[in-house]
Amino acid sequence: MENEKETVTAAPKAAAKPKVAFFDFASCEGCQLQITNLGEGLLDILGAIDVVEFREAISEKWDGDYDVVFIEGSIGDHHAEERLKKIRARAKVLIAYGACACTGGVNGMKNSFELDEIRASVYGKDYKFFDSTPTKAVHQVVKVDYSINGCPIYAPELVEVLKCALRGLPYTVPDNPVCSECKLNENVCMYERGLACLGPWTKAGCNSWCVNNGNICYGCRGEVKNPARNANDIIAKYDLKPELIKNKFDMYNKCKEGGK
Amino acid sequence: MNYHIIQKDNLDCFIKSLAKKMKVCAPVAKGHNNFAFEEVTCAGDISLNYIPTILPPKKYFMPQREKMLDFDLTEGKPKDSAVLDAPEMAIFAVHTCDLAGIQCLNMVFSERPRDYNHLLRKEKIIIIGLECNTYCDGNASCALVGNHYPNGGYDLFFTDLGDRFIIHVNTQKGEELVESMGLAKAAVGDFSALDKVREAKKSAFQNEIGVDPKKLPEIFAKGMKSKVWEELGAKCVSCGNCTNVCPTCYCFDMADTVNLDMKTGHRNRTWDSCQFQTFAEVAGGENFREERAERQRHRFYRKFKYPLDKFYRSFCTGCGRCTRTCMAKINLKDTLKALAAESRSV
What we know:
The complex is a heterodimer. Chain A is built from 10 helices and 5 strands, in the order βααββαβααβααααα. Chain A is α/β, with parallel strands linked by helices. In chain A, strands 2-1-3-4-5 form a 5-stranded parallel β-sheet. Chain A is globular, with a radius of gyration of 21 Å. The termini of chain A are far apart. Chain B is an alpha+beta fold. Chain B has 2 domains: 2-66 and 79-204, no CATH class; 213-345, no CATH class. In chain B, helix 8 packs across helix 10 (292-304). The mean pLDDT of chain B is 96. Chain A binds chain B through residues 44-45, 47-48, 159-160, 162-163, 166-167, 175-177, 179-180, 183-189, 191-193, 199-200, 225-231, 233-234, 236-238, and chain B through 30-34, 36, 54-55, 59, 64-65, 234-241, 244-245, 257-262, 270-271, 273, 276-278, 292, 325, 327-329.
């Protein structure tokens, strides 16, 4: 220790930093891209962790245990399920990130159909050669310690969750509607603009990212646990049909109901 | 009483020279009949004919998100230092409902333990009011709570007299500002024009719910178990819009955030809402207001009952924002009317 004195103020040595790995399953890999796009913020993160695997960013592999793993993507076949279980067995902390991993995401739309029917329409008559299971979110396969919802993830939330994971603190995905943050940002309500927005039913935590940038909320963070009992009032005020809202929700939230 | 006059043609000059001295915020059109207080640099940026803004000017006294302190845990004993971001600024064209809202917040935050961030920030803000000569829209209930006329809480107060504004100077700060702009004193003709505006308002603004406001405390005292609250609860989305846009809702949440160095960090506060399911939840999972009906009832009692007992003043300013913003069509005037009707029939 004596001769290491001069390094005390520098960043901790890689060996002392938590070993963190990033893995992807059925996804567009856009959430990884969000991380690589963090810019200068990435330097702060790399000061706190030692990234040992990250397919989109580095070619190194790691054969030891992981302190923290980030899982992107949903689970759509038996092979993925086994691979995920093996990763879980080697990881102290598992973080599901992105809509696919946390709620099934757009991949969940597969669950709207009879499995064999959808397999045949995708792979043709020899579909049986291609393994496929109903879409599952990561927590439907293995224990998840932290979730970072959203398509893509909201990078500031990723940093908050990482800090919680490194300090062993819990992180709770906000369970208020997106409106609760949207109003603080003083956006003109999308309904006032004549657009049907899923903000009133969708979990907050994204700082109403889409609406701040002129888009509606697509419900990518998943439905709040206890949504309004009588949403018809909202829909009636703006002269909309309940089916419209339900169909919009299907884009990200079909996995919730489980497979057929 | 000190009154001055500014010709409307000179308003641009007034705003521009004020903007040279400090940040000036005023209502700005956001489209779809929505308005927001934002920084302006000339009169052309401002919508003088506006309905209450999405958020009230409370956002300048108590920002939506505010850093309270920085801390450092590097050494054995934690170090912390308070943070206050309080720029010198003027808020222009504040309606009387919002002036009342700021007065309510001042009362609340002057109570012990005092909220120094609020109290120090308000010292830096010049408030310039603007009278409503007519109703903004049918959602307002300012006459019910007596907020359609000015009742203090400003440095300067503008009333539209057609081609000019008459300005009431209410504070030393306001006096200095008007003096520095070289505005003329009001003359006899200006006062009679002001009287005419005020006289016309007597008939234009009428108690919006047809219930004597003096009866409201009694109505609320009896209304705890009203079925009205169940009806509201069945509609409510728990989005918190009604409390976020309310000029007198001041509940907040505090959280510490540590930086990635795991040693330094900061304490932030954010607006919270009694309409959120988690608001009254405590350790062990007990929730004191688990149902939406209870939470909506609480909101109404926090406007029409509890503050009357404590501060002898309604904390509903009559601005109508909660009704306008509610996606589930929960209407403040209708709720009060239904409650009063039920109270009469009991």
